[in-house]
From TrEMBL:
<keyword id="KW-0378">Hydrolase</keyword>
<feature type="binding site">
    <location>
        <position position="13"/>
    </location>
    <ligand>
        <name>Mg(2+)</name>
    </ligand>
</feature>
<dbReference type="GO" id="GO:0046872">
    <property type="term" value="F:metal ion binding"/>
</dbReference>
<dbReference type="GO" id="GO:0005829">
    <property type="term" value="C:cytosol"/>
</dbReference>
<dbReference type="InterPro" id="IPR036412">
    <property type="entry name" value="HAD-like_sf"/>
</dbReference>
<dbReference type="InterPro" id="IPR037512">
    <property type="entry name" value="PGPase_prok"/>
</dbReference>
<dbReference type="InterPro" id="IPR023214">
    <property type="entry name" value="HAD_sf"/>
</dbReference>
<feature type="binding site">
    <location>
        <position position="15"/>
    </location>
    <ligand>
        <name>Mg(2+)</name>
    </ligand>
</feature>
<keyword id="KW-0479">Metal-binding</keyword>
<comment type="similarity">
    <text>Belongs to the HAD-like hydrolase superfamily. CbbY/CbbZ/Gph/YieH family.</text>
</comment>
<dbReference type="GO" id="GO:0008967">
    <property type="term" value="F:phosphoglycolate phosphatase activity"/>
</dbReference>
<dbReference type="GO" id="GO:0006281">
    <property type="term" value="P:DNA repair"/>
</dbReference>
<feature type="binding site">
    <location>
        <position position="176"/>
    </location>
    <ligand>
        <name>Mg(2+)</name>
    </ligand>
</feature>
<keyword id="KW-0460">Magnesium</keyword>
<dbReference type="InterPro" id="IPR050155">
    <property type="entry name" value="HAD-like_hydrolase_sf"/>
</dbReference>
<dbReference type="InterPro" id="IPR023198">
    <property type="entry name" value="PGP-like_dom2"/>
</dbReference>
<dbReference type="GO" id="GO:0005975">
    <property type="term" value="P:carbohydrate metabolic process"/>
</dbReference>
Length: 226
């Protein structure tokens, strides 16, 4: 079992880790496709497209609807439409995963410094955290457009290390996709993979995180049982 004794700070992914946001992402995706008079996608299809940021989500959705590669001009023209629709749907159907609020609160009270590192655009990240009463728990929030690069690049995690003035062995990443695992490994930080989120149909264990959890409250067994 991994030794978590040195951990002082924790970075969390958002979509598929803290919040099940696919229902609203699917609604926004289909509203965008409808506006373009294109075929609709199922929620399960959208679930498999999430994880690499809004632009990649729409690239995958358009590729599905057109049954072809997406012209870059069309993608650029489509993004404002998607952003508009997602802003309307942002917290209509999304929900926290079980035990997220209680576990985050316990970690904060135990003295851990907490951050969100997501590939979701920052403009949508803050309102979503506020809608679920999570925003006051985090010292730092990094969206997919907050820095020059996003996960799986290690830049967001390296940024946190610099901001907090801590060593890699003191930071823990928690996420549901291989992008989270790859970013953590590149930054030389410990990582826990969650099995219930969005990972393109692959079991998170295939990306070889340090530990795997089926439920969010299992994180407390590693960090709160000292």
């Amino acid at each position: 079992m991994t030794n978590f004794d040195q951990i002082r700070a924790i970075a969390f992914d958002l979509d598929g880790t803290l919040v099940d946001s696919v229902p609203d992402l699917a609604a926004a995706t289909n509203a965008t496709l409808l506006e373009l008079d294109l075929p609709q996608a199922s929620e399960e299809q959208v679930r498999g497209w999430v994880g690499n940021g809004a632009k990649m989500l729409m690239r995958r959705a358009l590729s599905f609807a057109l049954a072809n590669e997406v012209d870059e001009t069309l993608l650029i023209d489509t993004m404002p439409k998607f952003m508009h629709h997602y802003g309307l749907f942002l917290e209509k159907h999304s929900c926290l995963y079980p035990n997220v609020l209680s576990t985050l609160t316990a970690l904060k009270q135990a003295g851990y410094r907490l951050a969100v590192v997501t590939n979701k655009p920052y403009r949508f990240t803050i309102p979503l955290l506020e809608a679920f009463g999570l925003s006051d728990l985090f010292d730092h929030v990094l969206g997919g457009d907050s820095l020059a690069k996003m996960k799986p690049d290690p830049l967001p995690l390296n940024h946190l290390l610099q901001q907090w003035q801590i060593e890699p062995q003191q930071l823990l990443m928690i996420g549901d996709s291989k992008n989270d695992i790859l970013a953590a490994k590149s930054a030389n930080v410990t990582v826990i993979g969650l099995t219930y989120g969005y990972n393109y149909g692959e079991h998170i264990s295939l990306s070889e995180p340090n530990e795997v959890c089926d439920n969010f409250d299992q994180i407390g067994q590693f960090l709160l049982s000292k």
